[in-house]
Design goal:
The chain has 321 residues and is of the alpha/beta class. It has 13 helices and eleven strands. Strands 2-1-3-10-4-11 form a six-stranded mixed sheet, sandwiched between helices. The protein has a five-stranded mixed sheet with strand order 7-6-8-5-9. Helix 3 links the parallel strand 1 and strand 2.
Length: 321
């Protein structure tokens, strides 16, 4: 722990007497979103912040700090005063970036405390209809008979879809060819066009093509079937027990933030995400709004996801672009 962090912790300990949480919050709270405005992470964070404004009777400010692989904004929070007034809203790339890139200036487990999960975003395995498969098992059997013949697209080396596909290949015992793109959209266009065979995509962007018959949906990456696509089985139930590669959103705080504050913020986030208007609005976009059972469960989830990504990177030999 750095001298700066030790001094911050001492200050926090001095001010967190028995009645501290009764007066918390007494100034605006900041949620740092380390990506540009407009994406799922930003929209989910803003919806929750709006609810917290009302619940806490205090301003909750969403501040976008985009930058290379979300690192600058996330590092800012890691080094912030752990007084309960600065948080970071993260996605799965929070863990995957650390697993893939060298010299990331923070550790997802060592430098952050969990507050709460805010959303799960199942990915969906979609195929071009020209590939002669109808089920996940069909795909696995075809790939075993034709190693390194099936192509899959992602938003680049180390992207969450890349991780999901490599985990799928490892568990299925197959070899496929990775075609990295500069973004998810061009990869999806080429799957629809037949230039590549398949990809793991977010449900919201694939839905129109699946409904139009331009893509086949084989399975979703979550533990349970998606409410928005209930007819599509999970990959775990279809062929690979234990497989899971859903994306997460979560709110984290700098390590050493007082547990009483973390618990209070967790309780308020639970209230916010349980409101039906938020749930229904985001479900239409393939985003399942939900919370962690506790602060500790959120922290444990971050640790588990980070360790999973580190393991995939080592097994698959993934390197950053």
């Amino acid at each position: 722990m750095t001298i700066h962090r030790v001094l911050c912790l001492l200050v926090v300990l001095l001010i967190t007497g028995p009645g501290y949480t009764q007066s918390y919050p007494n100034k605006p709270i900041r949620f740092i979103v380390p990506v540009a405005p407009g994406g799922n992470l930003d929209l989910v964070t803003r919806a929750i912040a709006q609810k917290l404004n009302q619940q806490l009777s205090q301003q909750v400010i969403v501040e976008n700090r985009p930058g290379a692989s979300s690192i600058p904004g996330t590092e800012f929070v890691a080094k912030s005063n752990p007084d309960g007034y600065t948080y970071v809203s993260v996605a799965s790339t929070f863990s995957s970036t650390f697993a893939v890139m060298r010299n990331v200036p923070y550790d997802p487990v060592r430098d952050f405390s969990g507050v709460s999960l805010t959303a799960w975003l199942p990915q969906i395995l979609v195929m071009n209809p020209s590939v002669p498969v109808k089920t996940v098992n069909d795909l696995i059997n075809l790939a075993k008979k034709n190693p390194n013949q099936i192509t899959y697209g992602t938003a680049g080396n180390g992207a969450t879809a890349h991780m999901a596909t490599e985990l799928f290949a490892i568990q299925a015992g197959i070899k496929m060819i990775h075609v990295p793109y500069k973004g998810n959209a061009p990869a999806l266009i080429d799957v629809v066009g037949g230039q590549i065979s398949m990809m793991f995509d977010t449900i919201s962007t694939s839905i129109p093509f699946v409904k139009a018959g331009k893509l086949h949906a084989l399975g979703v990456t979550s533990k349970k079937r998606s409410p928005i696509f209930p007819e599509v089985p999970t990959i775990a139930e279809a062929a690979l027990p234990g497989y899971e590669a859903a994306l997460f959103n979560a709110i984290l705080a700098p390590i050493a933030t007082p547990k009483e504050i973390l618990n209070l913020m967790h309780q308020e986030i639970v209230k916010a995400v349980q409101q039906s208007d938020i749930k229904s609005r985001f479900l239409q976009q393939g985003v399942e709004i939900q919370s962690s059972e506790s602060v500790d469960q959120c922290t444990a989830m971050i640790k588990e996801e980070t360790e999973k990504f580190v393991k995939i990177v080592k097994q698959a030999g993934i390197h950053a672009d």
